[in-house]
Amino acid sequence: MGGPSGHSLGASTGKSININLFDTNGSLVVGENYNINVVSAAGFMLNSSTVTASTAIDSSASGLGVGALNIANVSVTGNAVYAASVTGWSLAIDNSGGYLELSITSAVPEPEQIMLMCAGCCWRAGRAPSAGAIQRKNIPGR
Fold first, then answer.
1. What is the pLDDT of residue 57?
2. Distance (Å, rounded) from C-alpha 38 to C-alpha 14?
């Protein structure tokens, strides 16, 4: 990755690796995290320097796009729901030193509203609520 003078990757050159996960059948599931072996090789170099096992290359803690070091740019095509759920990614050499590994973190979105209903459990003035009625209690300060 990268190379001799003028071909380096990162913020100083504005050059990066583009990694696009093409998922047209929806196999990436929202809320699931994935480790994907992008490249297998006997050794890796970054900007003319050897990169050893367990070395981080680049990452993002704010979803898809260009990483903090501008070395990689990660995207997902064909699965907009999963793409919107990605909260971060990291690109690193795995523990064995044989794979360039992309790890993606996805979060399940929070529901916008939760409706709570009381059915037959609230008694007021000794009477049961009518069928289908939602009882409101006066809460001080509300």
1. 95
2. 22
